[in-house]
Amino acid sequence: MKKMLVLTMIAALFVIAACGGNNSGNTNSANNAANNTATNAPANNAGSEAEGEDITPEEGASLLVWESKEERPFIEAIAKEFTEKYGIEVKFEELGAADQVNKLISDGPAGLGADVVVFPHDNLGKAVSAGLILPNDFYEEQSKSENSELAVNAVTYEGVMYGYPRSVETYALFYNKALSPEAPKTFEEIVEFAKTFNDPNANKFALMWEVGNFYFNYPFISTGGYVYGDNGTNKDDIGLNTEGAVEGLKFYGSLKEILPMNSGDVTYDIKKGLFTGGTLAFDINGPWTIADYKAAGIDFGVAPLPTINGQPASSFSGIKAFYVNSYSKYPNAARLFARFASTKEAQLKDFEITGAIPANTEATADPSVQNNEIVKGFVEQFNQSTPMPSIPEMGNVWSPIAAAFSDVWNSGKDAKEALDNAVQQIKDANNGATAAQ
C-alpha cells in the first residue's frame, strides 16, 4: 500500500489530471452559517458550496494566520491579494508548521489561536481527536476534484476531509555544482569527499542536515526499520528498534567524523549560510529552501538521497494543508481564506515564490513545474519516500526517538540501547501514559 501511495504522488506530479466537476450545494446553509454568533465554543459547520459561489464571510472579520518563516513571502503575497478582493485584513504570525497543533491545544480554547493554521498531515489525527479544526465542508468537492488523491487522502481522517491541500513535500540532496559537479550516489562517497574537503576551522563541511530532527533522520531507520506497522496505522507494531534500524543508527553516529558538531548546533539557518556562502557541498533539505538558494546565485542541483549501508534511503513525505481553527470567531472568513490560498493559482504562486511543489493536479502539470530540473530531483526521491503516519500516536514518537539519536550523536551511546529505551517510552505513552504534547 505504501508503494501505491507513493506512485499516486508521482502520478500527481507527472500526469495531467482532469480538474473540475459539478460543485453543487446549499447556499442557504452557507448564508445561515455566516450569521452564527461567535462564541468560544467550536464553530458550526458552514454547509456546502454552491456552484460558482464563495462562502459569505462574517461582517467585520479579520484573520490571523500561523506559518513558518520559509513560507512568509508567499503568505504575505496571497494575504495582500485576499484583502484587496474581500476587504478582510489578514495578519501573519511566524510559527513552525510542526509546532502549530501543540500551540493550538492551549491557545484555541482560550481564543488566542490563529484562525487559519498550517501543519503536515502527520498531526491531523491529534488535531481531530482534540477537536481543534473544522471540516473542509463548504469547499470539499472542489478540494477533492482539484488535488491529487494522495493529498486528499492525507488530509482526510476517519472519512472526513479537514484540510485544504497546499503542497506535497519530502527532502532530498542539494549539491553545489561548483564543489561537486555530480551528486554522490552513496554516503561512503561523501565520507571520502570530506577527507579532502573538510576544514572545520574555515567552516568547510562536506555534508549537513538537521542532525537533531527525526524528520530528517528517518532515512537511517528506513534501511531495515519503520515507525508503525500496517502502513503507519498500527500503534502496537513499532519497528524503530529492529536489527536494520540499529545498524542504521550506528551508521548515523559514525558520520560525526565528518560533521564534528553537536546535533543541536546544526540548524536550518547555519546550513543555509554555509551553503549559500560556498563552504558546504551537500545539504539534505526540502523544496522550501529552493528560493533562498536561487536568490543567492548558487549553481546547485537536487538528487535522491545517497544509499545507506548499500540500501536506498527512504525519506519521510508529507502533505501540508491549511486548516480552520474550530474556535475561530470568523470561521467563514477563515474557510474563504483557506480556499483562496490553496487554489491552483495560489499553489503556482507558492511554487514560484518558495519552490513548494503543488498538490493541485493542474498546477503540477503546468510547464513551470514540469520543466524544472530541480523538481525532478525531488520527484525521484518521492519514489522512495514513506508517508508519515497520521494516527494520534505519532505524536508520541518524536521526542523519544529524537533523544535516542541525540544520545548516539552527542554522547556515543550504544545504538540498540538508545532505540530500545525510545521504543519503551513510545509503548508506555501509546498504552495509557499521557500522550506527548
Automatic annotation (TrEMBL):
InterPro entries: Maltose/Cyclodextrin-bd (IPR006060), SBP (IPR006059). It is found in: Cell membrane. GO terms for biological process: maltodextrin transmembrane transport; maltose transport. It is a lipid-anchor. One of its GO terms (cellular component) is ATP-binding cassette (ABC) transporter complex, substrate-binding subunit-containing. Residues 30-57 are annotated as: Disordered. This is Maltodextrin-binding protein. It comes from Paenibacillus nanensis.
